[in-house]
Amino acid sequence: MTFDPAALRFGANGLLPAIAQDATTGEVLMLAWMNADAVARTLETGRVTYWSRSRQAFWVKGETSGNLQHLVEMRLDCDRDALLVLVRQDGPACHTGRRSCFYTAIRDAEEVEIMQPEA
């Protein structure tokens, strides 16, 4: 069966969440948003492309930083309203210089930074 991005269930804003996960380690790297065109561009180019809500523009991950995300596999959830994007990540995924955007844990009701920026 041929995949059609239009078969996804986008929200009222035309977007759906896309979770980026390291294809080798399973580490969750980040969450961003995609529209139908971003999904299609990602599948066509193999470079993960998101929709920037703040800039209202396409955002090819790593285009300016060099911290590219190379598509390994894209998965749909059962409701077709979220994506899991398995990637090969070059460098940190987070704009803070950390490997993952999920670098703060809540432990005993306190925020604890569990990951430092990469050198």
Please tell me about this protein's structure:
8% of the residues lie in helices and 38% in strands. The protein is mainly beta. It has one domain: Ubiquitin-like (UB roll) (Roll), CATH 3.10.20. Strand 5 and strand 6 form a beta hairpin. The model has no long low-confidence stretch (mean pLDDT 95). Pathway: Amino-acid biosynthesis; L-histidine biosynthesis; L-histidine from 5-phospho-alpha-D-ribose 1-diphosphate: step 2/9; Amino-acid biosynthesis; L-histidine biosynthesis; L-histidine from 5-phospho-alpha-D-ribose 1-diphosphate: step 3/9. One of its GO terms (cellular component) is cytoplasm. Belongs to the PRA-CH family. It is found in: Cytoplasm.
* CATH fold field value: Ubiquitin-like (UB roll)
Task: Give the second-level CATH assignment, the architecture.
Answer: Roll
Query: Helices and strands: which structural class?
Result: mainly beta
Looking at the structure, what is the overall shape? globular
Total strand segments: 8
- Treating each run of at least 4 consecutive H or I residues as one helix, how many helices? 1
Mean pLDDT: 95
CATH class category: Alpha Beta
Number of structural domains = 1
Q: What is the terminal separation in angstroms?
A: 44 Å
As a percent range, the share of helical residues equals under 10%
Question: What is the compact description of this entry?
Answer:
This is Phosphoribosyl-AMP cyclohydrolase. Helix content is 8%, strand content 38%.
